[in-house]
Fold this sequence. Notes:
Number of helices: 2
Shape: elongated
Largest sheet: none
Helix content: over 70%
Number of domains: 1
Distance between the termini: 22 Å
Oligomer: single chain
Order of helices and strands: HH
Strand content: under 5%
Amino acid sequence: MTALAKLGVTAVIAAAVTYFFLSWRVFKSPLTDAIGETFGSLAVLLLVVSIIGTTRAN
Length: 58
């Protein structure tokens, strides 16, 4: 894994954890809702990364 890929993975993990705690503690969402929102956000983020990767490969 390249250094840039490791940096990207670290950034995604940090963003997910931050989003989870913001949703759970600051916005006072129930725990299960905060987890669901986090997984949904990660799914959208992975979809965007996949589209960008496919576009750059062509």
